[in-house]
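Translate sequence into structure tokens.
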Amino acid sequence: MIKAISLRGVLEDLKRRLEELGAKRVWVGDKWYWILKPDIKFGEVVEIE
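Result follows.
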């Protein structure tokens, strides 16, 4: 059976996962980037799926 995927659902899942990781958006001048996991250890793999 094929599961219907909506953009809203994908974005909600992404938002939830970023919150779980403690991700933060950081502004530098007029641009921003993400710190996906502030407490990451060297060699650790971060999965967002």
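Note: DSSP finds one helix and two strands in the chain.
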